[in-house]
Structures are given as C-alpha cells and as structure tokens.
Design a protein that fits this description.
The chain has 10 helices and 8 strands. By secondary structure, it is of the alpha/beta class. It has an 8-stranded parallel sheet, with helices on both faces. The N and C termini lie far apart (about 65 Å).
C-alpha cells in the first residue's frame, strides 16, 4: 500500500508536460476523418514473405516454422512483375478511394527500407527495391490515399514478447525485451510517417495477442501521441475488436458489418467515429494457392452497399502473388 501511495504521489508531482495528455483531434484530423467517412471503399493489400509459401499469412505460426529458417525466404523473394503504377491504376479504376498496405505483418518482415533492421525488402532480398516508396509515390501521383497496416506483434524478433501466437517459432526468450521492441516499433513508425509523404491512416493489428494477459501494457497513448505529432491529419485505427480507445480516430470491424457479429470478432458497440469493415474476397488475407473459393460479384457488391448503408467503409482485401501480380 505504501509503494502504491508513493507511485501515485510521484505521478501527481510530475510536470504537466510529462503526463499523458487528453486527446483533442486537430482541425486537419477532423477534416481527414470526414474525407475517410466519405470514401466508402478501399483496397487492403496483404503482401509479405508468406506469399512465397502460398498458404496464407499465418503459416509461420500455424506450422511452427523456425524463425531463422523462415527468414531464408527473403533470399529468394523477387517479385519481378510488381508495378506500382499498374496496381494503383487498377485499384483506382475499381472506384476505391484508398489503399491499405501491410508494411510489416506478424511474420516480422518489413516491406519497406527501414534502418531499424536489415530484415526488409531492400536489404534482405535480391529485389533491392523499396516497394512501399514506389507505391506511395504512385498513390500521391494518382490521388489515392495511402493507409499503412502495422503489426504490434512479431513472430521473428527476439525482443518481441510472446503472446498467444508465434510460440513455436524457436525464439529463445518468451519475455522478450519490451523496451527494446517498443523503441523499434516507434522508430519504424517514425520512418513511415516522415519518409513516404502524407499518410492517411495507421492501421494497427495484434493487440488481441495479449488478451490472455490483461496486465500487459502496450503503451498505446504515447505511441498514438507520437503519430499525431508527426502527422496531425493521420488517422489511427486499431483492429483490437474492442470499442475505440482514447486517441483513435476510426473504428474497425473485422469480417462483419457494424452491429453484426457473424464472424465472432465484432461484438463491440458502435462508436460515433468513422467506421470501416474489412473483408476478404476468398477465405484468406495473404495469397493462398488452394483458396479459389471467391465470393460472387453479387455478394461483394451487396456487402459494399450494406456497409455504406451503415455509414461504414468497406476495405476489401487482395493478396498479391509472390511474383508481384494481383490475382485475376
């Protein structure tokens, strides 16, 4: 009790500049929210090393693949048919107003040229090109908003604390090193928000990995404040399957329309924030060669219309092939 009192006393004596500040969105942020709300349709792009295995983005943990062996995939990743201009043109022609691209998924591989790790598309592959830079430049040129998916979990890094996934990838220390990993994430987010032009939103995923450890502190308020400081108009969404946390600008529903919970991931209440539902065209997010069970055009169009009827955007997923082509 004494220690708790001392901690509380120290907190109350901290200078105001060091205390977490209540979030008040800027004018630019509110304008960005309205632009997002009006968009209604975006395209999700799940792309990483997992495309090479053609078995979906969760293969590393589903098959308990050793993290050092998995990393060898990078040595053969050469998407020779990748063409950012063709991608963006095709997506724009579909009527989509924005693209959300996986900069780093749970596998831990960075699809941009980061200085924080050599495990990235430029330094670890023979392709040697910054895919995100080419995509960002083309989005800005063609007038498409660019959102960036960023995973809060990592099945590759040794300093990433273990959650309920990625436990069989061979990393040596379940506790990891949170301070090191948190610094790594914030440094990468800083790169993304300072080196690729105007970013429409940061789309977080993975908070749920620690849902069996309720005392785990993701330190989101500080991270959110950093993002808003670097780009005040940048929206923050988090696919945590909860009601929005302080500092978030949009509410995400996975595989369900707001107010529905058929997939079991979207039972949360609907907030007053701009809404988005994400859905796959077949069954997987990442490229899976055996999954040809695509939803009909009628089903997809109805989903888009129903989402708009609930004042929500539809973020429709595409899993690019390992050669850089978008599936037909």
């Amino acid at each position: 009790m004494k220690a708790l009192f001392i901690s509380f006393l120290l907190l109350t004596l901290l200078p105001a500049s060091m205390k977490p500040q209540a979030y008040h969105p800027t004018k630019e942020n509110l304008e960005s929210r309205q632009e997002f709300r009006d968009s209604k349709f975006g395209i999700f792009l799940h792309w990483g090393l997992y495309a090479m295995l053609a078995t979906g983005e969760w293969t590393m943990t589903n098959k308990n693949l050793d993290y050092k062996e998995y990393a060898k995939l990078a040595g053969g990743f050469y998407p020779s048919k990748f063409d950012a201009a063709r991608w963006v043109s095709a997506i724009k022609a579909s009527g989509a107003k924005y693209i959300c691209f996986t900069t780093r998924h749970h596998e831990g591989f960075s699809m941009f040229h980061t200085r924080c790790s050599d495990y990235n598309i430029v330094d670890a592959t023979p392709f040697k090109r910054d895919i995100l830079k080419e995509l960002a430049d083309e989005c800005h040129k063609q007038g498409i908003r660019l959102h960036l998916y960023y995973s809060h979990i990592d099945w590759f890094r040794e300093d990433a604390p273990w959650g309920r996934t990625g436990r069989g990838t061979g990393r040596p220390n379940p506790k990891g090193n949170w301070n090191s990993y948190y610094s790594f994430m914030n440094n990468q987010l800083t790169e993304l928000l300072t080196g690729y032009g105007k970013i429409g939103a940061i789309w977080f995923d993975g908070w749920w990995d620690q849902d069996q450890n309720p005392d785990f502190n993701w330190q989101l308020p500080e991270q959110y404040a950093m993002i808003h400081r670097l780009q005040p108009s940048c929206l923050i969404g988090n696919n945590h399957h909860q009601e929005p946390f302080a500092g978030e600008d949009i509410q995400i529903f996975e595989r369900d329309l707001p107010g529905e919970n058929r997939a079991g991931l979207s039972g949360q209440n609907i907030s007053s924030l701009p809404l988005e539902t994400c859905e796959t065209m077949n069954g997987m997010w990442g490229y899976k060669i055996t999954d040809q069970d695509y939803k009909s055009v009628k089903t997809l169009v109805h989903y888009l219309v129903k989402a708009a009827g609930k004042d929500a955007n539809l973020l429709m997923n595409i899993g690019p092939q390992p050669d850089g082509e978008l599936p037909a």
